[in-house]
TrEMBL record:
Protein name: Diacylglycerol kinase
Residues of the DAGKc domain: 7-140
One protein family per Pfam: DAGK_cat
Entries under Gene3D superfamilies matching the protein: 2.60.200.40, Probable inorganic polyphosphate/atp-NAD kinase, domain 1
Organism: Bordetella genomosp. 4
Amino acid sequence: MKPLHLTGDEPFFIVLNTGSGRDDASDVQATIQRVLDEAGRRYTLMPVDDGRQLPAMAQEAVARAREQGGIVVAAGGDGTLSAVAQAVLASGLPFGILPQGTFNYFGRTYGIAQDTELATRCLLAAQPQPAQVGLVNGRLFLINASLGLYPQLLEDREAYKRRYGRSRLVAVWSALVTLARAHRQLTVHLEHEGHVRTLRTPTIVVGNNELQLEQIGIAEAAALQQGQLVAMGVRPVGTWALYGLVLRGWLSRLGDADHVFSFGFEHLTVRLSRSKRRIKVALDGEIHWLDAPLEFRVSEQPLQLLVPPPSLRAARA
Protein backbone atom coordinates (compact mmCIF):
# COMPACT_ATOMS: atom_id res chain seq x y z
CA MET A 1 0.00 0.00 0.00
CA LYS A 2 1.31 3.44 -0.93
CA PRO A 3 2.19 5.47 2.19
CA LEU A 4 -0.12 8.36 2.95
CA HIS A 5 1.22 11.82 3.69
CA LEU A 6 -0.94 14.56 5.13
CA THR A 7 -0.64 18.28 4.34
CA GLY A 8 -2.13 19.45 7.63
CA ASP A 9 -5.19 20.99 5.95
CA GLU A 10 -7.41 17.89 5.94
CA PRO A 11 -10.65 18.29 7.94
CA PHE A 12 -11.32 16.06 10.92
CA PHE A 13 -14.61 14.17 11.28
CA ILE A 14 -14.67 13.29 14.96
CA VAL A 15 -17.01 10.57 16.21
CA LEU A 16 -17.32 11.31 19.93
CA ASN A 17 -18.99 8.78 22.21
CA THR A 18 -20.38 10.92 25.02
CA GLY A 19 -21.41 7.81 26.94
CA SER A 20 -17.91 6.32 27.33
CA GLY A 21 -14.65 7.30 28.96
CA ARG A 22 -13.64 8.45 32.42
CA ASP A 23 -13.89 12.21 31.86
CA ASP A 24 -16.95 14.42 31.61
CA ALA A 25 -18.17 14.37 28.00
CA SER A 26 -18.87 18.11 27.91
CA ASP A 27 -15.33 18.87 29.13
CA VAL A 28 -13.87 16.53 26.51
CA GLN A 29 -15.90 18.16 23.75
CA ALA A 30 -14.98 21.67 24.90
CA THR A 31 -11.29 20.78 25.00
CA ILE A 32 -11.31 19.33 21.49
CA GLN A 33 -13.11 22.39 20.14
CA ARG A 34 -10.78 24.83 21.87
CA VAL A 35 -7.58 23.17 20.66
CA LEU A 36 -8.75 22.82 17.06
CA ASP A 37 -10.22 26.34 16.96
CA GLU A 38 -6.95 27.80 18.23
CA ALA A 39 -5.09 25.88 15.51
CA GLY A 40 -7.51 27.04 12.81
CA ARG A 41 -8.17 23.44 11.77
CA ARG A 42 -11.43 22.46 10.10
CA TYR A 43 -13.43 19.83 11.94
CA THR A 44 -16.89 18.40 12.46
CA LEU A 45 -17.87 16.93 15.82
CA MET A 46 -20.25 13.99 15.51
CA PRO A 47 -21.38 13.09 19.06
CA VAL A 48 -23.33 9.95 19.94
CA ASP A 49 -24.75 9.11 23.36
CA ASP A 50 -25.67 5.50 22.66
CA GLY A 51 -23.11 2.90 21.59
CA ARG A 52 -25.67 1.34 19.26
CA GLN A 53 -25.46 4.50 17.16
CA LEU A 54 -21.71 4.19 16.63
CA PRO A 55 -21.65 2.02 13.47
CA ALA A 56 -24.04 4.31 11.59
CA MET A 57 -22.25 7.48 12.73
CA ALA A 58 -18.87 5.97 11.83
CA GLN A 59 -20.13 5.15 8.33
CA GLU A 60 -21.35 8.72 7.96
CA ALA A 61 -17.95 10.03 9.06
CA VAL A 62 -16.23 7.80 6.49
CA ALA A 63 -18.55 9.00 3.70
CA ARG A 64 -17.96 12.67 4.55
CA ALA A 65 -14.21 12.19 4.89
CA ARG A 66 -14.10 10.53 1.47
CA GLU A 67 -16.02 13.41 -0.11
CA GLN A 68 -13.84 16.11 1.44
CA GLY A 69 -10.44 14.39 1.58
CA GLY A 70 -10.61 14.29 5.36
CA ILE A 71 -9.65 12.21 8.38
CA VAL A 72 -11.90 10.10 10.60
CA VAL A 73 -11.21 10.42 14.33
CA ALA A 74 -12.66 8.30 17.14
CA ALA A 75 -12.95 9.73 20.66
CA GLY A 76 -13.96 7.32 23.42
CA GLY A 77 -13.03 4.06 25.09
CA ASP A 78 -11.62 0.93 23.47
CA GLY A 79 -15.02 -0.19 22.21
CA THR A 80 -15.59 3.16 20.52
CA LEU A 81 -12.18 3.13 18.85
CA SER A 82 -12.82 -0.41 17.61
CA ALA A 83 -16.32 0.36 16.28
CA VAL A 84 -15.13 3.39 14.30
CA ALA A 85 -12.03 1.55 13.07
CA GLN A 86 -14.33 -1.19 11.69
CA ALA A 87 -15.89 1.38 9.37
CA VAL A 88 -12.59 3.03 8.46
CA LEU A 89 -10.51 -0.08 7.70
CA ALA A 90 -11.80 -0.91 4.21
CA SER A 91 -11.79 2.77 3.16
CA GLY A 92 -8.03 3.22 3.55
CA LEU A 93 -8.66 6.66 5.06
CA PRO A 94 -6.34 8.01 7.76
CA PHE A 95 -7.64 7.25 11.25
CA GLY A 96 -7.01 9.27 14.40
CA ILE A 97 -7.88 8.49 18.00
CA LEU A 98 -8.51 10.50 21.16
CA PRO A 99 -8.46 7.73 23.80
CA GLN A 100 -10.80 7.96 26.78
CA GLY A 101 -10.68 4.37 28.07
CA THR A 102 -9.53 2.97 31.41
CA PHE A 103 -6.34 1.23 30.25
CA ASN A 104 -5.73 2.83 26.81
CA TYR A 105 -3.56 -0.04 25.56
CA PHE A 106 -4.02 0.80 21.88
CA GLY A 107 -3.19 4.48 22.26
CA ARG A 108 -0.25 3.88 24.61
CA THR A 109 1.28 1.40 22.16
CA TYR A 110 1.63 4.22 19.63
CA GLY A 111 2.52 6.99 22.09
CA ILE A 112 -0.92 8.63 22.00
CA ALA A 113 -1.73 10.29 25.31
CA GLN A 114 -4.95 9.76 27.23
CA ASP A 115 -5.05 13.44 28.19
CA THR A 116 -7.56 14.95 25.74
CA GLU A 117 -5.80 18.27 25.23
CA LEU A 118 -2.40 16.69 24.66
CA ALA A 119 -3.83 14.01 22.36
CA THR A 120 -5.67 16.62 20.29
CA ARG A 121 -2.56 18.79 19.93
CA CYS A 122 -0.55 15.73 18.88
CA LEU A 123 -3.25 14.86 16.35
CA LEU A 124 -2.44 18.09 14.50
CA ALA A 125 1.17 17.01 13.94
CA ALA A 126 0.56 13.27 13.42
CA GLN A 127 1.18 11.30 10.24
CA PRO A 128 -0.32 7.94 9.16
CA GLN A 129 1.48 4.75 10.14
CA PRO A 130 0.26 1.21 9.31
CA ALA A 131 -1.24 -0.45 12.39
CA GLN A 132 -2.00 -4.18 12.47
CA VAL A 133 -5.53 -5.23 13.39
CA GLY A 134 -7.06 -8.62 14.05
CA LEU A 135 -10.23 -10.05 12.54
CA VAL A 136 -12.62 -12.71 13.80
CA ASN A 137 -15.31 -13.68 11.30
CA GLY A 138 -14.64 -10.36 9.61
CA ARG A 139 -15.10 -8.29 12.78
CA LEU A 140 -12.18 -6.08 13.71
CA PHE A 141 -10.41 -5.95 17.06
CA LEU A 142 -7.54 -3.69 18.05
CA ILE A 143 -6.48 -5.18 21.38
CA ASN A 144 -8.04 -8.60 21.98
CA ALA A 145 -10.93 -10.92 21.30
CA SER A 146 -12.09 -13.60 23.73
CA LEU A 147 -14.68 -16.22 24.59
CA GLY A 148 -15.65 -18.03 27.76
CA LEU A 149 -14.70 -16.56 31.14
CA TYR A 150 -13.12 -13.37 29.83
CA PRO A 151 -16.36 -11.97 28.31
CA GLN A 152 -18.05 -12.63 31.67
CA LEU A 153 -15.29 -10.67 33.40
CA LEU A 154 -15.93 -7.77 31.04
CA GLU A 155 -19.70 -7.82 31.53
CA ASP A 156 -19.28 -7.83 35.32
CA ARG A 157 -16.68 -5.06 35.09
CA GLU A 158 -19.09 -2.81 33.19
CA ALA A 159 -21.78 -3.45 35.80
CA TYR A 160 -19.35 -2.46 38.58
CA LYS A 161 -18.25 0.64 36.66
CA ARG A 162 -21.83 1.81 36.28
CA ARG A 163 -22.28 1.44 40.03
CA TYR A 164 -18.89 2.59 41.37
CA GLY A 165 -17.33 4.63 38.56
CA ARG A 166 -14.58 4.01 36.03
CA SER A 167 -11.16 3.27 37.50
CA ARG A 168 -8.53 0.55 37.36
CA LEU A 169 -9.21 -0.31 41.02
CA VAL A 170 -12.88 -0.98 40.27
CA ALA A 171 -11.87 -3.11 37.27
CA VAL A 172 -9.51 -5.22 39.40
CA TRP A 173 -12.03 -5.65 42.23
CA SER A 174 -14.80 -6.76 39.88
CA ALA A 175 -12.44 -9.35 38.35
CA LEU A 176 -11.66 -10.83 41.77
CA VAL A 177 -15.38 -11.11 42.57
CA THR A 178 -16.14 -12.75 39.21
CA LEU A 179 -13.34 -15.30 39.60
CA ALA A 180 -14.75 -16.35 42.97
CA ARG A 181 -17.80 -17.86 41.24
CA ALA A 182 -17.84 -21.29 39.63
CA HIS A 183 -17.35 -21.24 35.86
CA ARG A 184 -18.17 -23.67 33.09
CA GLN A 185 -15.26 -25.21 31.23
CA LEU A 186 -15.33 -25.07 27.45
CA THR A 187 -14.25 -27.99 25.28
CA VAL A 188 -12.65 -26.35 22.26
CA HIS A 189 -11.04 -27.59 19.07
CA LEU A 190 -8.22 -25.35 17.84
CA GLU A 191 -7.30 -25.79 14.16
CA HIS A 192 -3.90 -24.29 13.45
CA GLU A 193 -1.27 -25.01 10.76
CA GLY A 194 -3.01 -28.21 9.67
CA HIS A 195 -3.33 -29.64 13.18
CA VAL A 196 -6.35 -29.92 15.48
CA ARG A 197 -5.86 -29.56 19.23
CA THR A 198 -8.72 -30.42 21.62
CA LEU A 199 -8.66 -29.11 25.17
CA ARG A 200 -10.78 -27.92 28.06
CA THR A 201 -10.41 -24.36 29.24
CA PRO A 202 -12.47 -21.64 30.93
CA THR A 203 -11.42 -19.08 28.33
CA ILE A 204 -9.60 -18.38 25.07
CA VAL A 205 -8.11 -14.93 24.45
CA VAL A 206 -6.56 -13.78 21.18
CA GLY A 207 -4.28 -10.77 21.59
CA ASN A 208 -3.23 -8.09 19.12
CA ASN A 209 -1.52 -5.66 21.49
CA GLU A 210 2.15 -6.03 22.30
CA LEU A 211 2.03 -3.72 25.31
CA GLN A 212 -0.76 -5.66 27.02
CA LEU A 213 0.92 -9.02 26.33
CA GLU A 214 4.25 -7.76 27.63
CA GLN A 215 2.69 -6.39 30.80
CA ILE A 216 1.15 -9.74 31.72
CA GLY A 217 4.30 -11.65 30.79
CA ILE A 218 3.43 -13.48 27.56
CA ALA A 219 6.68 -14.20 25.71
CA GLU A 220 4.92 -14.60 22.35
CA ALA A 221 4.21 -10.84 22.32
CA ALA A 222 7.07 -10.56 19.83
CA ALA A 223 4.99 -12.60 17.36
CA LEU A 224 2.94 -9.47 16.67
CA GLN A 225 5.99 -7.90 15.06
CA GLN A 226 6.02 -10.81 12.57
CA GLY A 227 2.45 -10.11 11.52
CA GLN A 228 0.83 -12.68 13.79
CA LEU A 229 -1.77 -12.75 16.55
CA VAL A 230 -1.30 -14.53 19.88
CA ALA A 231 -3.74 -17.09 21.32
CA MET A 232 -3.80 -17.69 25.08
CA GLY A 233 -5.77 -19.99 27.33
CA VAL A 234 -5.88 -21.60 30.77
CA ARG A 235 -6.18 -25.27 31.53
CA PRO A 236 -8.94 -26.23 34.01
CA VAL A 237 -8.08 -24.87 37.48
CA GLY A 238 -9.83 -23.93 40.71
CA THR A 239 -10.62 -20.48 42.06
CA TRP A 240 -7.43 -20.09 44.09
CA ALA A 241 -5.33 -21.07 41.11
CA LEU A 242 -7.14 -18.42 39.05
CA TYR A 243 -6.29 -15.85 41.71
CA GLY A 244 -2.68 -16.98 41.45
CA LEU A 245 -2.77 -16.44 37.69
CA VAL A 246 -4.13 -12.92 38.20
CA LEU A 247 -1.23 -12.23 40.58
CA ARG A 248 1.23 -13.56 38.02
CA GLY A 249 -0.30 -11.23 35.44
CA TRP A 250 0.22 -8.26 37.75
CA LEU A 251 3.85 -9.34 38.17
CA SER A 252 4.30 -9.80 34.37
CA ARG A 253 4.85 -13.55 34.82
CA LEU A 254 1.62 -15.08 33.50
CA GLY A 255 3.43 -16.89 30.68
CA ASP A 256 5.55 -18.82 33.24
CA ALA A 257 2.52 -20.52 34.80
CA ASP A 258 2.12 -24.25 34.15
CA HIS A 259 -1.64 -23.86 33.56
CA VAL A 260 -1.26 -21.23 30.81
CA PHE A 261 -0.64 -21.95 27.13
CA SER A 262 0.04 -19.42 24.36
CA PHE A 263 1.19 -19.42 20.75
CA GLY A 264 1.46 -17.10 17.77
CA PHE A 265 -0.47 -17.69 14.56
CA GLU A 266 -1.63 -16.15 11.29
CA HIS A 267 -4.89 -18.11 11.05
CA LEU A 268 -6.79 -20.00 13.75
CA THR A 269 -10.18 -21.74 13.72
CA VAL A 270 -11.94 -22.25 17.05
CA ARG A 271 -14.81 -24.72 17.34
CA LEU A 272 -16.78 -25.67 20.44
CA SER A 273 -17.67 -29.31 21.09
CA ARG A 274 -21.30 -28.38 21.60
CA SER A 275 -22.99 -27.62 18.31
CA LYS A 276 -23.66 -23.95 19.01
CA ARG A 277 -24.60 -21.76 16.09
CA ARG A 278 -23.71 -18.55 17.90
CA ILE A 279 -20.83 -17.84 20.30
CA LYS A 280 -20.52 -14.93 22.73
CA VAL A 281 -17.29 -13.08 21.97
CA ALA A 282 -15.81 -9.96 23.55
CA LEU A 283 -14.08 -7.63 21.08
CA ASP A 284 -12.08 -4.84 22.74
CA GLY A 285 -14.41 -4.92 25.72
CA GLU A 286 -17.69 -5.04 23.78
CA ILE A 287 -19.85 -8.18 23.69
CA HIS A 288 -20.97 -9.63 20.33
CA TRP A 289 -22.65 -12.86 19.22
CA LEU A 290 -20.82 -14.39 16.24
CA ASP A 291 -21.59 -17.41 14.06
CA ALA A 292 -19.62 -20.59 14.76
CA PRO A 293 -16.91 -21.51 14.03
CA LEU A 294 -14.67 -18.56 14.88
CA GLU A 295 -12.04 -17.71 12.26
CA PHE A 296 -9.22 -15.54 13.58
CA ARG A 297 -6.66 -13.90 11.29
CA VAL A 298 -4.61 -10.77 10.75
CA SER A 299 -6.25 -8.25 8.44
CA GLU A 300 -4.44 -8.01 5.11
CA GLN A 301 -5.15 -4.28 5.15
CA PRO A 302 -3.75 -2.31 8.10
CA LEU A 303 -5.26 0.79 9.63
CA GLN A 304 -3.63 4.06 8.57
CA LEU A 305 -3.31 5.27 12.16
CA LEU A 306 -2.28 8.85 12.89
CA VAL A 307 0.80 8.63 15.12
CA PRO A 308 2.52 11.64 16.72
CA PRO A 309 6.15 12.40 15.81
CA PRO A 310 8.69 10.80 18.22
CA SER A 311 9.26 14.07 20.09
CA LEU A 312 5.56 14.28 21.05
CA ARG A 313 4.83 10.65 21.88
CA ALA A 314 3.68 9.80 25.40
CA ALA A 315 5.41 7.13 27.48
CA ARG A 316 3.99 3.62 27.04
CA ALA A 317 4.07 2.80 30.76
